[in-house]
Automatic annotation (TrEMBL):
Coverage span on the entire protein: 31 to 265 of 351
Name of protein: ribose-5-phosphate isomerase
Species of the source: Escallonia rubra
Chaperone in keyword set: no
EC number from the UniProt entry: 5.3.1.6
Domain of life: Eukaryota
Gene Ontology MF terms: ribose-5-phosphate isomerase activity
Length: 235
């Protein structure tokens, strides 16, 4: 099975939790994309009705429109029944790294408003420690004096061997701009960052930081698709 087929299996499994009448958070990324299209398909077939979707990014907003999911927002629906979204990393306690697609702020706002947060991943996303995969830990920051903020973030995690890199568009090397008009600094760690909650609090205390990509104690259900099949685990 290809990685995309595994993502699709996980996404379709998650959509089994969707009931007619629900207000749904719609995730962002190549895994959540399958869930959004599946929901549209079931609406089309009349197997689901009275669904309201709250997208976690402009790109998901467009996709949801294209598959016919009625859309609204958090102002109109401050509490959601269920959100289905992918993750970049999942640790054994269901803590997540998200945001490598750049949508972490709206995802965290929507996911924080949901009664149930179903994470859908292929098995390659499972890690022992967050930030341990040597891949990016995204932090959304304001564009004003971004070098200053990036440097402060690096110094904050000096003992973890942290390096921060401004995320740039591959094409023209211009700074990547989020849906909210902010920049993203990707943090790379050589060593374990230790207490995640302390790291989260320290990052959020830094003026200039908007939000970071650690989603701690937020997921309620984890669906993992692997070569041996798909598993569903509740917190
Ligand atoms: O950027 C994001 O937050 C995405 O949801 C990411 O965490 C998962 O994206 P993927 O499903 O394309 O791997």
């Amino acid at each position: 099975l290809t990685q995309d087929e595994l993502k699709k299996i996980a996404a379709y499994k998650a959509v089994e939790f969707v009931e007619s009448g629900m207000v749904l958070g719609l995730g962002t990324g190549s895994t959540a994309k399958h869930a959004v299209s599946r929901i549209g398909e079931l609406l089309q077939q009349g197997k689901l009705h009275n669904i309201v979707g709250i997208p976690t990014s402009k790109i998901t907003h467009e996709q949801a429109l294209s598959v016919g999911i009625p859309l609204s927002d958090l102002d109109a629906h401050p509490v959601l029944d269920l959100v289905i979204d992918g993750a970049d990393e999942v640790d054994p306690f269901m803590n997540l790294v998200k945001g490598r697609g750049g949508s972490l702020l709206r995802e965290k706002m929507v996911e924080g408003a949901c009664k149930k947060f179903v994470v859908i991943v292929d098995e390659s996303k499972l890690v022992k420690h967050l930030g341990g995969s040597g891949l990016a830990m995204p932090v959304e920051i304001v564009p004003f004096c971004w070098k200053f903020t990036a440097k402060r973030l690096e110094l904050m995690f000096e003992e973890a061997g942290c390096v921060g890199k401004l995320r740039r568009f591959v094409g023209n090397g211009e700074p990547f701009v989020t849906d909210n008009g902010n920049y993203i600094v990707d943090l790379y760690f050589k060593r374990d960052i230790g207490d995640l909650r302390a790291a989260s609090d320290a990052i959020l205390r830094l003026a200039g930081v908007v939000e970071h990509g650690m989603f701690l104690d937020m997921a309620t259900t984890l669906i993992v698709a692997g070569e041996l099949g798909v598993t569903v685990k509740n917190k």
